[in-house]
Design brief:
- The protein is an alpha+beta fold.
- Helix content is 53%, strand content 21%.
- The protein has 2 helices and 4 strands.
- It has a 4-stranded mixed beta sheet, with helices on one face.
- The longest helix has 68 residues.
């Protein structure tokens, strides 16, 4: 009976925890166009970014892929990676790589943030350790100076007794 109760309790706990897990990171996508009137050239860009929005099927002529087109990106700073296709390609040639990088970008940013935080904490611990060590040396020097002064004072009293 107790085993069954514990099993059901932990099963419910596991299901509850997975229900409240953070949403997964998905690739977001939008297109940008830049027009240069002087050369009469239009440059079309595909921008991929991490988002929590659910992806859906995107069709661009011969290109079909899954992305959260036009959805809001995750807040915060993320690494910028520029991909450039070859002469015969298009802005969608590297869509699989771009989507995977968008999924990983948040992880890379989180790791960088954790690394910076750990480095700051480590530096603080080292600074605290050095401050404590310096204080111990200062205290020890004060004690030695005080003992030296007491000895000198005691020697001075002995010399006064001889007179």
């Amino acid at each position: 009976m107790t085993r069954r109760f514990l099993f059901l309790f932990f099963l419910l706990l596991a299901l509850t925890c997975t229900a409240f897990a953070a949403p997964s990171i998905q690739p977001g996508f939008k297109t940008l166009g830049i027009w240069d009137p002087a050369s009469a050239v239009r440059l079309d860009l595909a921008v991929w970014y991490p988002t929590h929005s659910s992806p859906f099927q995107v069709d661009y002529g011969d290109w079909n892929f899954s992305a959260a087109r036009g959805r809001p990106p995750l807040e915060g700073q993320h690494p910028l990676i520029v991909l450039s296709h070859d002469v015969a390609g298009s802005r969608f040639s590297l869509h699989q790589l771009a989507a995977e990088l968008a999924r990983k970008a948040q992880n890379a940013a989180e790791k960088a943030q954790r690394h910076a935080q750990h480095a700051a904490e480590r530096a603080q611990r080292q600074a605290d350790h050095l401050a404590e060590k310096a204080q111990r040396h200062a205290d020890h020097a004060d004690e030695r100076a005080q003992r030296h002064a007491e000895r000198a004072d005691a020697r001075g009293h002995r010399e006064d007794d001889r007179d």
